[in-house]
Amino acid sequence: MCGIVGYIGRRDATPVLIQGLKRLEYRGYDSFGIATVGSAIEVYKKMGRISDGDAGVIGLHGCTGIGHTRWATHGEPNDINAHPHTDCSGRIALVHNGVIENYGELKRQLQGRGHTFRSETDTEVIAHLLEEHYDGDLLAAVNATLPLLKGSYAILAIAEDTQQIVAARDASPLVLGVGDAEIFAASDMTPLLEYTERVIFLEDGDVADLTPDRFAIYHGGLKVERPVELINWCVEDTRRGGFAHYMLKEIYEQPQSFYETIRASLNDHVRQMVMETGEITLVACGTSYHTALIFKYLAESLCSIPVRVEMGSEFKYFTPPLRGLVIAVSQSGETADTIAALKMAKARNCPTLAITNMQGSTVTRVADETLLMRAGPEIGVAATKSYMAQLAALMQIVNLRCEGTFDDILSHAHLAIGDILLQDVHEAVTLCSKAEHVFFVGRGAFYPVSMEGALKMKEISYVHAEGYAAGELKHGPFALLTAETPVVAICTPGPTYGVMASNIKEMKARKAPVIALGVAGDTELAEIVDIFIPIPNTHLLVQVLTASVALQLLAYHTACALQRDVDKPRNLAKSVTVE
User: pTM for this structure?
Assistant: First the structure.
């Protein structure tokens, strides 16, 4: 979940590293640090966010360096636990993303052999192991150290008196950027965009030896070739573009992300997998889990195909019986739990499909086929346009199984998404920003939409929010309804409209203020609720999209009203690459 970056080449390394860490800050922002090879190993590290202070005053020297922005797993966020970490002599420095599971045992052994530890991190054991194996050959030291590690890692290491970076990965992402007499390394593509469009995605078990004018990649001790791929993103995609926050920019980019994903045709292999399967299992986490649940409701009701949805974090330990197509849904393509589930599905000989936004990510290399979202870079930690692009990809599958019934509806859905962006939600924001608790309720496909709305509210505004199937409130949660507990209810025309209206009246009878999302022109619903937010009166598929956007806007403006840090909510990171 941390972000790492490395540079070796003709430029001063420090400015490149600082800019790269700012690009990666959505992966973690507890602390940051860089190390360069000058006359010696020079290190600067500090608690807090690199974007908060004037990192430009960091005066480290050299054209070779590594950097890190941290999401803490071992040891609290402070200057000492910040990366990079060094060995006892200060001749070796490294940065690490991942978790070393056997660090306790390794640390005790190293201390017994006289090593002194400065931090509480698992990463520091790697620095001391490198020290024991280093005799002037950093590549050999890394190769000797890696077999001793259990867990996950993406590592960048440097040593005194060498213009060299050694990179290694296993179960944590790492990508190389190839420039003109310079090489870059990073956790993902965002730090590379302004320097090169040529990238190499390292595989699990790869070790790369980087120098200014060449690179070599090894696997199992043998030199291997990895393809150089071209990035189709641009650096402008990673800038705020005049918006107050990345999240707001990305909310407004959703009509485009949906349209671009819908218009990208499915290849023949994906079509065959989807059409031939008798049932589908989806594995996902967080927001991706909610899109999978929405797919379940839509696919079962519109296509009559059985669908099971599993949480990635549970799947590894409580694996269900698997039959048919298994789809892994992950924005980053690096979600550790989802990747583990995907590998288990392959081991059971299930056909597998990855839905992701990240070209070259781990899930794309594990799965049999990939359905690539077209959302572009998403910097805000709270998923918005990637959620919309996931729905576009999943609705493509629904439409395919329904023999193109919804072609016209989906091809014009981006227009309705654009319309809802203009919706005024300030009355609802005023109500929610004064509350300690908010309920979100819906039925059918709008139940997981409600869950996603609650997730957005809690993760960026810190207002406690829960999403429920509306009929379940009477089975316990009704006890929590008061005049100070707003309920956000989604009530649109369909088979559950009448019972949903009854549920709302029951909530009103308990004095709970109700904010309702309903179709434009529904005067009956508007009369029985406190605040009415209209969405376009369109097909169910499009209503799911527009209701989702309305709830994103509600969460965003509530967080702004409460002066929260919208793009970097506390304790969270964008990509969950550790279990």
Answer: 0.83
